Amino acid sequence: MALSGVEIFKLLPKTNCKKCGHPTCLAFAMKLAQRQASLDLCPDVSEEAKKVLGEASAPPIRPVTLGTGDKAVKMGEETVLFRHDKKFVHPCAFAVEVKDSMSDSEINGVVEQVLNSEIDRVGQKLRVDAIFISNASGDAGKFEGVVKAIAAKAPAVPLILSTTNPAAAEAAVKAVADKKPLLYGANESNADAMAGIAKSHKISLGVAATSLDSLTALTEKIKGLGVEDMVMDSGARTAKEMLRDNTYIRRAAVKKGNKSVGYPVISFAQRDDVMLETLIASLGITKYSSIVVLSSVERWKNLALFTLRQNIYTDPQVPLQVEQKIYKIGEPSADAPLMITSNFSLTYFIVSGEIEGSKVPVRLAVMDTEGLSVLTGWAAGKFTASKIAQFIKDSGIENEISHRELIIPGYVSILSGAIEDKLAGWKVTVGPREANGIAVFLKSR
Ligand code: SF4
Questions:
Q1: For a substitution probing ligand 1, which of 9, 12, 45 has the most ligand atoms within 8 Å of its CB?
Q2: Domain that holds residue 9
Q3: What is the model's pTM?
Q4: What is the CB neighbour count within 10 angstroms for residue 154?
Q5: Is residue 359 part of a domain?
Q6: pLDDT tens digit string along 309-347?
Q7: Which residues form ligand 1's pocket by a CB distance below 6 Å?
Q8: CB atoms within 10 A of CB 238
Q9: What are 367's strand-pairing partners?
């Protein structure tokens, strides 16, 4: 059970030494109770207190990792129901299903699509994260062969091996155990054998239940068999069931400290109707799935799902921002245009993308507005004429360029006169209001 701040305080040294970065032991205890601090920050805590507090301050959802290396998928460690309370920790992973009954060319086609799915959006690499290989043929040898072939073709992509047949599971897991796959398919009738395989190969186990009640019984049984790392499937398949079960699970784990459901959730969104599949997957992203299994890879679907996932898993209290500096786009000569914008990441990546697309080399002055967009920064007094003038003077750009013209975003055209007043000898030109007008604007000059 979670401990209250006062209960935690009683176990701390009570010296108020501030080494943990908090003014008092009580303040630190309150942060621990809210799971907003780590016990490691206090160097003087006793071993006994560590034991009690370590358990109490562990995240309510167990951390589980799928795969190895740079592309490993981290799951769990979530501490809240709502992202306005605190950032969601690990973005939900997308896995695309490959059936071992598919032809070699079909399988290769899907694997290629996964390998080519990566896109760069506002500086982050987004991709289909894993391949879910199902033993649809029911043939253990075929399953093992397909698992080996996919692992050879996509060695860095995390794998989920789906079978309820322990013999098929053992052979397939053995072939790729070093890649730390997730073995999915432990149920009431095969739990002992599947737990034995997961334990002996030190991999995580996907628990396939048919209801929330049978799920908790299964996770408790499997934990008793010595498997700590689990991923749960409550059996929910419709959108309504997913929303209901995932919400019950997250609430029970986070609010009630129920350890039987304190594991990441896997959800199945596969549908014949791809639009419907995208909608179901969106529900999984927003409502607590750690893995969403898809039936296919489509570029339009990826873009929609990647963007939603990125929005849900950013920290709402910390705007994404880029470093304040003058960025060179292309190879600008001394007389190349100088533009200015704010340091909100999305603004920067959209504006720089449009400039790149125009093929006109430009210097882009990106000013620190604490991550606010141009208009919001202006309204908040962070993108003002005096701050822009100061930034341009301090940047040293006057020594680099042969002209004195600054192009400002059209949305803040009102600033043009004031900037000219504060930047002696400079001419201010008003650029387009929207980034999609930049290419035409630059080419027409
Ligand atoms: S470091 Fe430990 S003893 Fe010092 S103030 Fe923080 S909690 Fe208290």
A1: 12
A2: 5-57
A3: 0.77
A4: 17
A5: yes
A6: 998 998 877 777 889 999 999 999 999 999 999 999 889
A7: 12-13, 15-20, 22, 25, 28, 42, 44
A8: 9
A9: 342
